Amino acid sequence: MKYDRAEAVRYMGAKKDDNEAAVLADLAYLQLRNEVRPRSCWQIFACRVDDAGVTLVDNGMRFESKNLAGHLQGCQKAAVLAATLGSNADTVLRRLALTNVAQAAAAQAVCAALIESYCDETEAEIAAAAGLHLKPRFSPGYGDWRLEDQRQLLMLLDCAKRIGLTLTDGYMLTPIKSVTAVIGLTEDTVCNTSKCAACVNRACEFRKE
After folding, report:
1. Cα distance between residue 56 and residue 46, in whole Å
2. By the 8 A CB rule, do 47 and 79 touch?
3. What order of strands is seen across the sheet that includes strand 133-134?
4. Helices in 43-182 by DSSP H: which ranges?
5. Number of CB atoms found within 10 A of residue 181's CB
6. 30, 39, 154, 165 — which has fewest CB within 10 A?
7. Which domains does the chain have, with CATH numbers?
């Protein structure tokens, strides 16, 4: 997992040549680097895709989402992924929120960049294990995919036991700097590798074209 300063600055909503934002990001990273404990788990499943959603053939688990189905069109396998930076990162974020608002915002951005980097590394492991190409991650809450389906993904991977990842009553992940996703596996070498292109939120301020 690498620290990408430019990506952190982007998550801060600053311009890439904003030196003040870069300094804040670097200071935040220094406070986080020894606290972050990245962990992940994943599993590959055969899947069946129809117009209304996706079914994992191995266990019959069903996800009703036209957007997810469209994203996985043509895939016969999918990986389910969960990743987290760990609870220590949450502790740092809470402390900074009470003591230094600007530093807290920078730390939030740094954590966002770190979890993205870690997920990218984990995806490379999945691709190597499967011998296939990967479509971008697609997570509950994207488009019409219900956030409530986070619970199914966590149960499927036994996340609480394996990586300490759980869910609040409001279906939010805890630790908060965590990700769950489904990733389509394909033999198609011309597959979209842009995570932003997979998202239907065209107005997102962090969107990459």
Report:
1. 6
2. no
3. 62-64, 53-56, 39-50, 77-84, 178-186, 133-134
4. 66-71, 87-99, 101-130, 150-157, 159-163
5. 22
6. 30
7. 5-189 (3.40.109.40)
Phi, psi of 89 (to 5 degrees): -65, -40
* pLDDT tens-digit series, residues 17-57: 999 999 999 999 999 999 999 999 999 999 999 999 999 99
Average pLDDT (8-14) is 96
Q: DSSP characters for 58-86?
A: TT--EEE-HHHHHHTTT-SEEEEEEEE--
Tokens of 184: 């389509």
pTM (predicted TM-score): 0.89
DSSP secondary structure letter of residue 141: T
Q: To which H or E segment does residue 49 belong?
A: strand 39-50
What is the mean predicted confidence (pLDDT) over 89-95? 97
